[in-house]
Amino acid sequence: MNVDAIANIRHMTRKERRQRRLALELRNKNTLLALIVPVMIAAKIMVAYVLPDKYFYDNNRMLRMMLGTAGDIAWSGSYEIAADLFRSINFAGLETMVDWSICLGIVFTTLVVFMILRADAPDFLQSLFILATVGLLNIYIFTIGKDIIQFAFFLAVYVVLVLPVDNSLIKVLLSCGVLYYESTFFRAYYVMIAALIFAVYVILEFFRTRRQLGFVSMTIIVLLLIATIYAMMVTAQTIMPDEYQQIMDLRAGYDIAFGDSADSATLILNVIPGENLPIFMVNYVINAFRMMIPIELAMRGAFYLPFFAFQCMVTAYMVNLLRQINNINEPTLFLALCVFLGYALGSFIFEPDFGSWTRHEAATFPVLHLLVLNQYQKVPLTQEERLLVKGLDS
């Protein structure tokens, strides 16, 4: 940016600065929207011609179950439910995973565009994150599989969050209801995520009334969230002993269950051996940090670096919002943070590997993009952006 342009900005009135900033934001949003389709096409080319079949093992299993040719590799439970669903909507007679990937990619990427149109204009870093997520969605989520169903449920939560209803309690209860409904027939552990979302809402609602949130307040929030998990486990131990024991044995069983599948290379196994509740809680905290900042994933090779960067950005955006909850005046954004935090707290228990964690996290995009595309997450990188922001704040 040349000296004359900088001087022009310095001499602008507040109104002129605002108009310049709005024009810059409009340009950024239009650029982001223009790049979404090329990113989708590039992702579909990777699905069809670049990535090996091992990364779509579950998708191909689902396809064969839908076609009735799975044989011994057919699984029951949520796999069977998903296969039946895809069979019932297969009006076009799709027979390959690439066919499903292209069709679902077009439909759901269009929905993504509408969500971005409604959101705040992005800055450069936000645009990069959204484009990376669109690529991830079109590779792993927008295809035949269970993750697209999870995306649909979070899309329903998004609809609840943007409803023109002023009562936040009603919205959070409706959001919990959507995920509880999912737990009744698809993923049973979502009943815990629904309960955690409400618990997070209660905790954060208390702290957001404070004028300032310092290190002590943030530490107390984190400790309360961990205490919530402990309380839920103690309750489950008493009233649901079978489910409690399943959770305690969960990670020990992943090594056997995954075997030689593609995800076995990135399994999240407990660091400390043992089966009692105190050890479980220590492992829970360790695994939470491992999942939020997956350094070990980055150490596995260059292929995993994009996933490492994606997760670090998600964590940074989430933490940045959490420390500003007393300044967030947008109820939708605050509730989106509660939903995502509740989801993350449950996922730290159940996610078997880093690959599944990244895919499932991307499938929360309808809620996740609300956490990213807002004024609280903007990072002015260029001198023009910094001058415009400074001028508006002065």
TrEMBL record:
Superkingdom as given in the UniProt entry: Bacteria
Membrane-spanning ranges: 30-51, 63-86, 98-118, 124-141, 148-165, 185-204, 213-233, 267-289, 301-319, 331-350
Keywords: Membrane, Transmembrane, Transmembrane helix
Protein name: EpsG family protein
